[in-house]
Each structure stands twice: as C-alpha cells, then as structure tokens.
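User: I'm curious whether this sequence folds into something compact or stays loose and floppy. Could you predict its structure so I can see for myself?
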Amino acid sequence: MRAPRPVLLPFAAWVGVVACSSSDTHAPTDAGGGTDASQGVDAAASDASLDGPTGSDAVALDAATPAKTTLAALLANNTSASGSFVDSYTPAARFSGSATPVSNGDAPASPTATMDLGTGRVSKVPVRSLLYPGATTQVLVETQSWFCTNGVTPIPTGQPADQCGSHVDVGYSTNYAAHVALQVADMTSRGVDGAVIDWEGQSAGDGVTDMPSTSSTAIDTGSLFLFEKAAEASGGAFHFAVIEDEGIKACAAASGCDVTTQILSDIAFLDASFFGSPAYLTSGGRPVLFFFSVDAWVSPYGKTIDWTQVRASAAGNPLFVFENAGGFTHAASDGAYSWVSPTAIGAYPGSDPFGTGAFLPYFYGQATSHGTLLGWGSAYKGFDDAVVNGWGGGERYAGQQCGKTWLDTFAVADGQYSATSQLSGLQLVTWDDYEEGTELETGIDDHLAVTATLQGGSTLAWTVAFDASAPTECAQAASGGFDPGTLVDHYAVYASPASDGQNVTLVDGDVPASARSFDVTGRLPAGDYVLFVYAVAKPFLFDQLSAPVAYAAP
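Assistant: Here's the prediction. I'll summarize afterward.
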C-alpha cells in the first residue's frame, strides 16, 4: 500500500520538519552506505511446488514517501551496497582485457547514507508488483558472496581487477555478520523471499567469518553460514538455498580425484550444515540444490560425474536443479532454472540481444512441457563482463536499456503464467555479481530526467524523458516507441519553504504514474515555497527528483 494522501498541514508543522544529516549511516553499521567495512516453477498443472511462505507472505517496504524528510535523504544510499564502489576497474592481466579502466554498467550507489532502508535512491516498491496478478511465485536472488575489501577509499581504478583476492574490491567484505544482516534486510525491504548463495565447494571447510580473508572460497563459505543464521532469525520470512559452482574444478584437475565422489562429499557437507535448517528452501519436504555448470567444469579434464550414483547416494535426498532449458533433460534432473544469455560483444546485438525474444520464451515453454519438474524463471537488468573480459574469452553483453530489459524479463514470465497457472519460482540474476554487470544491489540506473514547471499559477506540470547521460540503447528504445514514463511506479509531490529548500514535506504521495500534472490549489498554507516532483520508480530502479519549482500559495 502507498502512503495515504496527507491532510493540509498548518504552517506550524513546517517548523518541525525533521532533517536527516548526510552523515547518517545504516544500522547496523558496516559496509553499506559508504561506511567502512575493511572488517568487514512449474505450470499450475505440475506436481512440483515449493514449501514455505510464498510471495503473498513477503515482507517488503512500501514505496517510501515519508511525510517529512530532506532532499538528500530522498536520493541517499538506501541499500547494503558500499558508497565507495565506483564501477571502474582495469581487467587483470590474466583476463587479457583492456589495459585501462573500464566500466560494465553497474550503477554506483549514492555516497550519502540513510538511516532508513525504505527511503532513498533505489525504489523499494515490492518486486512482486512486476509479476502477474495473483502470483504466489517465490522470488529469490542469487548472490556471489565472495568479495572482500582492502579498505581503501576511494577504490583505486588503475589497479588490476584482482584487487582483493581474485575478485574486484566492491567496498565491503561479504563474510561479516553485520554485512550479511544488512544485505538480508535490504533484500527483504525490496520484497525478496530469499537468496540462492553461490558456493565453491568445501575446500575451505567452514570458511571464515568476521575476520579478513582474501580466499574467495573461505569468504563465500563463511558467508553461507551467516546467511543461514540471518534467514533463521527472520522467523520464516526469508529462505536460503545453495548453488554449487566451480569448486569441482580443483578435483577435476587433480590426478586421482574422483569427481563423483567429490560431489557426493560436497552434498554430505551441505546436508550436515544446511539442509536441516528450517530456513533452507525445500519442495515436498526435500531440500532444493542448484548446480551451475558443474558438468562443464569437469569435462575439459576428461572426467564425468556419475549422476546415477549421485542420485542414489546423495545425503539428505535433495532435489537437483540444473541450469537453463537443457537442465530439464539432465540425467538427474528434478528441475531447471533460467539464467541470462549474453552475446559476444563482437557479434552484438545478434538475434536476441536481451534474451527476451527467444531465450526466456523457450525456457518457459520447456518448463511448461516438463510440468512435473521444478521450473525457476529469471529476471535480470542486463549483462556486461568487460571488467573481467569475459573471464579471458572476450566481453559478453546484454543491454540494460535503462531498466527496460529488467521490466521485459518480468513481462515474458507474466505472458506465460497466471493466477491459475503459477510460476513456482523466479530467480533475480544477480544480487552482487559486480564483475559480470548483473548486480542489482546498487539498483538500476534508469537515467530518467523529471522536468517540472508551474503552469497557470497553481498547476505543477512535468515531463519524463531519458537524460543526456543515458546510453544510446535507451534512446533507441524510446525511438522504437518505449515510453520512459513506464519505468515509474507513481509520483510524490514535496514542498519546502522558499527560505529553506532542503527540508521537505509531502504534499501528496500517491500521484498515479500516468499523471503529468498536479493542482496545488489549497494544498499548502499561504507563503512562498519550492515544489519538487519525486518519481518513485518501479522495483529496483532509481527514484528521481526534479529541480525546484517556485510557488506562491495564496
């Protein structure tokens, strides 16, 4: 629900406007908001379904339009991302990429922190508002959780991308309890039901928590344990699951190491440590375990995983969910999840530049055809791995289109499913893959410019368009008929005494997205003011604020 239309405020109320200092920080205080963290699916006919709370039980903040706030707070960093992240890195030599700093479209968070995760630059409209009416789909977000920081601000961009361990320095360390708690709070504030944590295997044992490390395996294993604790502390509002990734490569490369035995050992570790948690994602009472390309990781070494043996001997009897549409026909499949399908930069745009023309429709078609298996759709903003030069194989790309791609990925799912034919799960790709340009933690820059004017003495009017800094693909989308205003969920109108201009009071917080004007007559006590139009964007996108417009209330 949105904020109700406020009543007329007496002038005395303006005197008591509460100002939020730009030095405010998140609670708990760690890496988020620019603080120091150096310490720091299936169709309705399917028998497959997910246990536990679904979208109808999600805990999320309404699109926050506080009655009294400041201009700085309206555009502050209301995320778990670090305010020191700069999206500019020089690819490490091992990736054979650019010798100068490059960016990949991840939007730096505001350096100004907020005490309120609901108010700020990134829209906290619940993400399920983008799903079809009546959706009970569980929405989980995939997280890498392998990052550390050197604690240097600003992050130096001239150094190779291997700035902390084998990954880029994003301004925080993911293996600290305070930071994981902040991430879960941020995810929950956006209406996300849980997280799928990337895991590189058990070579680091129980990992490292609340202390510095440059080992990505130790960091992400430690983070996994912290996510378990944070999910359990949510009282059932937040779940977690594991996606096993490339850790199996070490065994594949080692002479005499049996990859089937290793996978079984990994699953036994997961069973002993996580599957029994009341917060672990289950279906039909069985834990759900995702796999990311594990067969592809071992095949270059001439080895194969015996999935018949794995299925027969896996501890905890988990359900196996594999990547993309081919996962439905995997020998051990209990389901499949969709990811993202970028195009090599030299061949871009190709025939399906955003994955919404063929890639996602095909996946959902296969999910429907395999209705007895779990099917997890995906939503993403885009993809760009220039920072790591495609991990050495050349940059791959899928354009963001200033948020249009994000909305379009939801639209594909919405066109396939309904209240009577439910999609069980949707995975947001990804929370924090800063190296492949898919991270959602900092929000999605929609590059919207809200231009407001006063007409007829009392009508606040505005236009919405892409700003001058918007990538070319955004203008191309607009020229093709896309209305930038589609990126807005609703508007709010704020006012401040002309003598102030920084402390603002809400005049109306529920102006429809279709509106382009607002009559201020009788809404303010007599006096001189400046008015602002605040565009509350659709989920995960950037909220935007107009320049001030002078108004004299009679």
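Summary: The longest strand covers residues 527-537. The radius of gyration is 24 Å.
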